[in-house]
Amino acid sequence: MSWKNKLQEYCLSKGKAYPKYRTRQTEGTPPHQPSWDCTVTIEDGHRFCVSAFRGRAKEAEIEAARIAFQAFQKKEGETVLREEVMIFPFELIVLVDMENVPSAIPRLASMRTRNMVVFGFCSSAATQARKSKNHAIADSDTRFTIHEVPSSRMHAAEMGLVLWTGEFLGSMHWKEGDEVCIVIVSGDRFADAAADCLNARPQVRSARVCHHCSDIPVVIGALANEMSMIARSKFSRFICNSCGLQYPIDEKHVCEKE
Question: Is residue 41 part of a domain?
Answer without folding.
Answer: yes
